[in-house]
Write a structure and sequence with these properties.
By secondary structure, the chain is mainly α. The chain has one domain. Helices cover 73% and strands 0% of the residues. It is built from five helices and no strands. Helix 4 packs antiparallel against helix 5. The longest helix has 24 residues. The protein is elongated, with a radius of gyration of 16 Å. The two termini are 23 Å apart. The relative contact order is 0.14.
Length: 132
């Protein structure tokens, strides 16, 4: 079971790391899209959301400070999900795509919250045992 958790952490962490790095590689395009969606201070939002994803990726992969990683993910997912994937406010032809992305983000946020239930320190992590 511990190995499965490690493999899952690595897969999910790489997903978040890839997407966080993309916030900076594709900064211009992401900023323009955020502006199109009505995000105030889009440049700042794209940069901060990218940093949240990168922080979360490292905490999950390394198994250190998981509470910080989960907080970073929640702080990422709440505004992004409701501002960028507002399926209730888009034309019908965009409705299904936004519902899919909204639902995916909510599920990923739910999975992030479940990390709080894993006994610490996580197996195969760089986190240290309390008192040890």
């Amino acid at each position: 079971m511990n190995l499965a958790i490690l493999v899952g952490r690595i897969i999910l962490g790489i997903f978040y790391l890839y997407n966080g790095i993309n916030h900076f590689i594709k900064f211009g395009a992401m900023t323009e899209y955020a502006k199109f969606k009505g995000v105030p201070l889009a440049e700042v939002g794209v940069a901060i959301s990218g940093l949240f994803l990168i922080v979360a990726a490292f905490t999950i992969i390394l198994g250190i400070f998981p509470e910080i990683g989960v907080a970073a993910l929640v702080l990422f997912f709440l505004p992004v999900t409701f501002m960028m994937h507002n399926f209730w406010a888009v034309p019908q032809e965009q409705h299904m795509a936004e519902i899919v992305n909204f639902s995916k983000n909510m599920a990923l946020m739910g999975s992030a919250l479940m990390f709080l239930g894993i006994k610490k320190p996580w197996a195969f992590s760089l986190g240290k045992k309390k008192g040890g």
